[in-house]
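The authors assume throughout that readers already know how a fold can be written as discrete tokens. For illustration, here is how one protein appears when written out as sequence plus structure tokens.
>
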Amino acid sequence: MTDTAQNHLADTRTGLPLPTEPVFDNVDDTRRHRKQRLAAALRLFGAYGFGEGISGHISVRDPEHHDRFWVNPFGVSFRRVKVRDLILVDEQGRVVSGHHRVNPSAFVIHSAIHRANPGATAAAHGHTVNSRALGALGRLLEPLDQESAAFYQDQVLYDSYEGPSISIEQGLDIAASLGDKRAMLLRHHGLITVGGSVDEAVHWFFTYESAAQVQLLAAAAGDPKPMNHAQASAARDGFGDRQLGWFSFQLLWDEITHEQPDLLEE
């Protein structure tokens, strides 16, 4: 390995040659980039079977109007969403750009999270099978492996349930309970993950869902032994790295845009 390569590796927290999220010169290019990533993330939810009827939504804050967010439209399948279908919603729940309606649950949850946490540029929510099963048990992820350790001391269980999340008060309570954590498991409901980009938030969602499956399988097969604090902390520093989370999504982006290029239609 050359000195240049060694220096490059040393520049990243993980010791990996990771690129960083692109920065654009103007807000229009930034908005287009975020919307393209959002549409791709929704198609990936569809491809991985994360759809559950009208349930589930992913949002990203508008780069110009920070009190507004882009989100998938109500009643459109994850498998069908294109960039042109995305809607922009303001803090009153009005669709200010786009031709579809907003899911009331998407509004109350995502508006509250974006308002409460400036670092949550994007949020992903779904009613996926393994997360729902883990939530039914009232158990958060244990650090059973490196991937699950990404959420060590960075997740919260939301134990309150009052029916579908369609009230402003419930959305505010969810956001307050989430705080600055990267993941929330909602008992009787589903999973929420957040990040500094769509890429990061969705990567955490995929990781949490698969880690939930590992935990359920391990518990069904025997008596799994979690990492100790030192081990879990070391694994979290690597697998929970935000830059690694962002970069990991790029592989999924390449796959879905190659397979389904129509998603980028504006």
About this structure: The first helix runs from residue 3 to 10. Strands lie at 57-61, 69-71, 87-89, 95-97, 122-126, 155-158, 183-186, 190-195. The first strand starts at residue 57 and ends at 61. The chain has one domain: 27-260.
